[in-house]
Amino acid sequence: MLTYTLSESSKLSLYEQLYNCIKQDILSGTISANEKLPSKRNLAKQLSISVMTIENSYNQLLSEGFIYSLPRKGFYASDIGEMFSGYEAPAGFTRDINLERDNIGNRDNKDFIDFASNATDPATFPFATWAKLTRRILSDDQELLMKNPPSNGLAELRIAIANYLREFRGINVSPDNIIIGAGTENIYSILIQLLGHDRIYGVENPGYEKIGLTLDSNAVKCIRIDMDESGIKPELLEQNQVDIIHITPSHHFPTGITMPVKRRYELMNWAVRSDTRYIIEDDYDSEFRLSGRPIPSLYSIDTHEKVIYMNTFTKSLASTIRISYMILPDHLMNEYNQKLSFYASNVPNFEQLVLAKFISEGYYEKHINRMRNISRKKRDLILECIKNGPLAAISEISEEKSGLHFILRVKHNMSEESLRKSCAEHLIHINSVGKDSYMINYSSIPLDKIEVAIKRLEKAMAADVI
Predict the structure, then answer these.
(1) What long-range pairs does 172-177 form, CB within 8 A, spacing at least 24?
(2) Predicted confidence (pLDDT) per residue in 36-69, tens digit
(3) Distance between CA 145 and CA 143 in Å, rounded?
(4) First-to-last C-alpha distance (Å) of the chain
(5) Helix (H) or strand (E) run with residue 322 in it
(6) d(CA 378, CA 159)
(7) Most confidently predicted of 65-69, 137-141, 167-171, 255-259
(8) 268 vs 302: CA distance, rounded Å
(9) Sign of the C-alpha dihedral, residues 404, 407, 408, 414?
(10) Nearest CA to 204 among 146, 248, 260?
């Protein structure tokens, strides 16, 4: 029998309190592996709370991999396996070069629909607020604008980021451990110099191909590591003698999966077995979890200084704002200060100050909340259009609860060549993530164009069944 004391006066909601209680009992072994949990109705009656509260808690535990469900049987505690010391893979993501070629002339067409783009819908950017902060900085911060910043970025921005991470991601970090860079590529060039060109780097397969290309261009050995339904396979890291692995555990690109807690601890166990091993956690898309609470970061459970946290503002604000950051563990930050602090910051003071004020004055939080609402409306409308159209009979949707894309699997008789030509003819661009599986990225598509976009997608992808 699960007995917990939940408080209405707590800063946490009832479902978050219950989620924390059950999670801790699973981690501690109080709830055994594969032990059946009470039904939602029975637990709600026992704790005198609503069934909806139980459902929200179970859904969060389910999404993080602490529990699993069996049809018509209920919920069970996952087998977390050996905890972190001290406390058939999907087809690879491929860019269709032929499809890119056919769409070169289409991109300038105002009717072109790009389901593969990470670009920002201009209607969602807070231009008025950005302009107001810009004018104020030009008027009030002239001396700071002309001051040479430290190599890891202005203290104002690092403090703002640290406060935001503590409040909204549960990450406690000193601003002194944060390094600001002009995009992920710049952050990686610093990281490679710090960790060494002689290390073996691993990236997810499928994964965000630009990371692999960035590593290749820096003349380091980079190995694409296959994944299964839980994420990257730890045994392949051992087989390939990988030293440093780049992962996106909260919302994998492009498959959209969330890495379950058991796999996270397996990777942590892999990392602590050698002094040369590190995990680069790319918290891609973490702000856009559209249901439940954000997935806790891998960095927050690291007690051995093995996780390097990385994130960017290109997704949450605009794809043209090239500001990223990483958090280094203490010993690596000390090494950076000794070896690389002679570098000048390559992000202008002006951009850093605008972003710092945007975050510290609460505008970023409001923007994220607004973006979640807009993204939820876009996603829901896309799903409704697909459900009520001809694609419903031949398609299956997955990983739609997080981020700004989901996976659409379509059963049709079209060859890849036929699909390529059909999409180009209908002014559509999509990316394949495996046989008959496609990534539907809706970040750049305005809400008022979604119905037209799906109708064209239906004609392009299901021409043989309409």
Answers:
(1) 173/309, 173/327, 176/152, 176/333, 177/327, 177/328, 177/329, 177/330, 177/333
(2) 999 999 898 888 899 989 988 998 888 888 898 8
(3) 5
(4) 54
(5) none
(6) 33
(7) 137-141
(8) 8
(9) positive
(10) 248
